[in-house]
Write a structure and sequence with these properties.
- The complex is a heterodimer of chains A (607) and B (69).
- Helix content of chain A is 67%, strand content 1%.
- With 607 residues, chain A is mainly α.
- Chain A has two domains: 3-320 and 330-335 and 372-456, Sodium/glucose cotransporter, CATH 1.20.1730.10; 464-575, no CATH class.
- Chain A starts with 8 loop residues before the first helix and ends with a helix.
- The longest helix of chain B has 29 residues, at 40-68.
- Helix content of chain B is 72%, strand content 0%.
- Chain B has one domain (6-68).
- The two termini of chain B are 16 Å apart.
- Chain B has helices at residues 6-26, 40-68.
- The chains are: A mainly alpha (607), B mainly alpha (69).
- Chains A and B meet through α1 and α9 of A and α1 and α2 of B.
Chain lengths: 607, 69
């Protein structure tokens, strides 16, 4: 790439200041860490607005930012379904209905809640699978980010000066991010992670807002986008009647049930990575507000992370849309054809080893949509802002990684070490174990990153396994919190059979145009879905349904727990939280309803 | 017991905003060709400076109020 894309001193200075700053926060917060609860649970002392922004930021890893822009370029504004159909309703639900049990039960983690509500085997299953997955996903995102930084070639100059090959950008990215994240979590624990996540949130906004602004000015605003792109890209709900009529390749039922219900509620309502932030809040009222506060900026994030993808596509689209062409919503849609150009914002995919352009089965060049965000930064930002934009990207990467590491060390300490290794551990033991788990967690992530780098295809397999394990989870929690008859045996075997159902469904189905194997149909091809996304959504729907039904069935045949033991854990046996005091619009229910109405309006505007 | 998050947040934005503003004031216009000839360093630097200052001011006010009571 041309030398104008090399960074200048100001860019390096901004990045350096940021690194020093995040570590500094760890040093300042160090003196507040005295017990394991301080280190792993922030001593339950975080104000609602801070926990709320951290709740959002922990999920906003680089893969989310890069992935959403990539999806924006691939599928258009319909990507917003991940926010306006998926995340927001789930966040409102967890805040209003589920937080009273998570927070009120005094559980230390999500697996801990399962042990209180069900039994040890259900907790063990969840704790081990969760701990494994956090490390894997932390490693995968580390790998993805380091590869990206190597691919954009803007950090080459200092390495060239030292006589080191370009591949060192990859190593240095991994090692330096690992050391910094380890440093600030080791020093200040969860509080340090949360404080940094909030700062990262503001940095992401500060880095991406001007990008979207310049991009929109360039293409002539939203109306300019609608003129430069086919209608399918600028309407979220058009053509949802049939999978052939929209770019996602999904029908409305698969979308609403699979994404809107099973996957989103499964993630936002049960994943300890985000729930941990709410559980660190200073009171029940704050804990319930945390996901609701988070949902307000979440609602607006599609404009920051999806629009860059649409703008990139508009800049690349060679076809000028004919505004006079008749508007036919219920028609098969085709993606925009982009000329493969290595200097383009959406370049062709290249094999990381051979450097050759990757082509699909029909010989068409595959595009590397993940380059949208870094290339957009390079396209619009001069030195100075470029440093800030890269800092935002690095910040999102670190917040996602820190989220994984802090969730891992807590689950390891309380749900594995204390529960199964040393039941009589003192608090000093636990604090030490938590600190050690932080260290090993980061080391494991680095190992996974190199493992993924060595076996490139393993990433798809790992992500598939996550999907299998996660898909049924929400059924277990829903029944646990709202049906007092659900039993531990029911929950455990429900989870297992849900996971098995996901595996079997994947083994029997495939998406159009894919070859059997990691993409599905490795048992036999019983059904072909129009797209991989549709296959994923239906895998989740089947897994959830099987888990739901099996849990009910087995629960009815097994002995329920005595009602006294379930106080504070199940809806019917818990006193309703009455929210008094505070301004009425800050109480969970009105806040939640307000958020849902605004989300509905956004859906209507971009329908 | 913890420090007010607005202090470090404000501080970082003051530093970044200040750096960008100064850099924007003293740079050659040619580098703004990519940003549609808008001096984004100057303008966005000022916005960040303002935000950082506001955060810092609010945190300082709260601290004063706490000291008095």
């Amino acid at each position: 790439m041309q030398s104008s894309n090399e960074l200048r001193w100001i860019d390096y200075l901004i990045i350096l200041i940021y690194f020093i700053f995040v570590l500094g926060i760890g040093f300042v917060l160090k003196r507040f860490v005295k017990t394991s609860a301080d280190f792993l649970l922030s001593g339950r002392s975080i104000p609602a607005w801070i926990a709320g922004l951290a709740f959002l930021s922990a999920n906003l890893g680089a893969q989310e930012v890069i992935g959403m822009a990539a999806s924006g370029a691939k599928y258009g504004i319909a990507t917003s379904h991940f926010y306006w159909l998926g995340a927001i309703p789930a966040m409102v639900f967890v805040g209003i209905f589920m937080m009273p049990f998570y927070y009120g039960s005094k559980a230390k983690s999500v697996p801990d809640y399962l042990s209180l509500r069900y039994d040890e085997k259900t907790r063990a299953f969840n704790a081990f699978s969760f701990a494994t997955m956090t490390m894997m996903s932390s490693g995968i995102s580390m790998y993805a980010m380091a590869l990206l930084l190597q691919t954009i070639h803007i950090f080459d100059a200092p390495f060239r000066a030292l006589g080191l090959p370009n591949s060192w950008v990859f190593h240095v990215s991994i090692i330096s991010s690992a050391v910094i994240v380890l440093g600030y979590i080791y020093l200040g624990g969860l509080t340090s992670a949360i404080y940094n996540e909030v700062i990262q949130f503001f940095l992401i906004v500060a880095g991406f807002f001007p990008l979207v602004f310049l991009g929109l000015v360039n293409v002539g605003g939203w109306s300019g986008l609608t003129q430069k792109l086919p209608a399918a890209y600028v309407h979220a709900w058009r053509g949802m009647d049939n999978a052939q009529h929209n770019l996602l390749g999904v029908d409305w039922f698969g979308l609403v049930m699979g994404l809107g219900f099973v996957l989103s509620f499964g993630y936002w309502c049960t994943d300890f990575l985000v729930i941990q932030r709410a559980m660190a809040a200073d009171s029940m009222a704050s804990a319930r507000r945390v996901p609701l506060i988070a949902s307000v900026p979440k609602m607006l994030f599609p404009f920051l992370v999806i629009l860059p993808g649409l703008i990139a596509l508009a800049l690349m689209n060679p076809v000028i849309q004919n505004a006079a062409s008749p508007d036919q919503p219920n028609q098969s849609v085709q993606p925009v054809e982009i000329q493969p150009d290595k200097q383009g914002i959406i370049p062709p995919q290249t094999n990381p080893e051979t450097g050759e352009v990757v082509k699909d089965k029909s010989g068409k060049v595959e595009l590397d949509y993940n380059m949208v965000i870094p290339n957009m930064l390079l396209h619009y930002f001069p030195s100075g802002m470029l440093g800030l934009g890269l800092t935002a990207l690095l910040a999102s990467f670190m917040s996602g990684m820190a989220g994984n590491v802090t969730a891992f060390n807590t689950v390891w300490t309380y749900d594995i070490f204390k529960a199964y290794i040393r039941r009589d551990a003192t608090d000093a033991n636990l604090l030490l174990v938590g600190q050690l788990a932080t260290f090993f967690g980061v080391a494991l992530s680095v190992a996974v990153a190199y493992f993924v780098a060595a076996f490139n295809n393993i990433m798809d397999v790992l992500q598939l396994v996550f999907a299998f394990v996660n898909a049924p989870l929400f059924a277990t929690f829903l029944l646990g919190m709202f049906w007092k008859r659900a039993t531990g045996h029911g929950a455990f075997f429900g989870l297992i059979s849900g996971t098995v159902a996901a595996v079997v469904h994947h083994g029997l189905t495939i998406s159009a145009g894919s070859t059997p194997g990691v993409k599905g149909a490795w048992i036999a091809t019983v059904h072909t879905y129009p797209s991989q996304m549709a296959q994923n959504f239906y895998t989740a729907i089947y897994a959830w349904t099987v888990c739901f039904l099996v849990t009910i069935l087995i629960s009815l045949f097994t002995k329920p727990r005595r009602e006294e033991e379930l106080k504070g854990l199940v809806y019917a046996l818990t006193e309703k939280a009455t929210e008094t005091g505070g301004r009425w619009f800050m109480r969970p229910v009105p806040l939640g309803i307000g958020v849902l109405i605004l989300t509905l309006i956004l859906n209507l505007i971009f329908r | 017991m913890n420090i007010d998050l607005r202090f470090p947040l404000g501080l970082l934005f003051i530093v970044f905003g200040g750096l960008l503003t100064l850099f924007g004031l003293f740079t050659d216009r040619a580098i703004y060709e990519r940003s549609l000839f808008i001096n984004v360093n100057l303008w966005w630097g000022l916005v960040m400076l303002l935000f950082g200052g506001l955060m810092f001011f609010v945190a300082w006010k709260k601290l004063q109020a706490k000291k008095r009571s």
